[in-house]
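User: Quick one: structure for sequence A, then sequence B.

Assistant: Sequence A:
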Amino acid sequence: MTKKIKKIQVVNGPNLNMLGKREPEIYGSLTLDQINADLAQQAMLLGLDLRFFQSNHEGAIVDKIHEIFDDKIDGIIINPGAFTHTSIALRDAMAFMSCPIVEIHLSNIYKREAFRHKSMLADIVTGQIAGFGHYGYQMALNAIANMINES
């Protein structure tokens, strides 16, 4: 019997395409492409099929969530950026996903401005990683790999 390769979707929200240029003292000096390349290498070692998506547009991200629902994705890593704190539409789209979901943030949103302390996704995601910079993506991938291999 052939083992099915698990599919993991990485979703990045607004302004994450500006990583490496935008406030490196907060978000680090790596670009999103560099983070994705490191993550793809890690996924290959774990035997996972990793897919990447980034948009600055809320509706495009919601459309992507609908698409991956239909694709029967095995796990999601999402950095919703500013939509973390504002998007009920994104929350509603994510709410019907049944796979493990890890919400990540490069910075510790709880040590920043008060408006960043509230995540619209916190009560529907499997877990949340914040404040570890680009390592948060790797931590999220390891967590999802462990969860889907245990199920």
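Sequence B:
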Amino acid sequence: MSTVAVTDATFDAEVKNSDVPVVVDFWAEWCGPCKQIGPALEELAAEYGGKIKIAKVDVDSNPNAAAAMGVRGIPALFLFKDGQVVSNRAGAAPKAALQSWIDEAL
């Protein structure tokens, strides 16, 4: 499974109403740290298979979702479980740190 592009219009359906936990990555094309963690998130999406969903929200194209979550800087990662935020973190991190954060939150 790969990451899922989520928009303002699909945020509730893809994230809040998901039947599996969702990691949401708020990012932008021009953001260097966002590009750094992109490949790690793709790998994690494949490794976790159907156990979690990794969603990516482009803040330039979808400002409403980012504003609703209070995103002030990117990359910003939020982990949703049963429609609620259970954990969040900001900034780039190595794949192992991201995986550890996800595992702890689940």
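The helical segments are 11-16, 32-48, 63-68, 95-105. The radius of gyration is 12 Å.

User: Thanks, that's what I needed.
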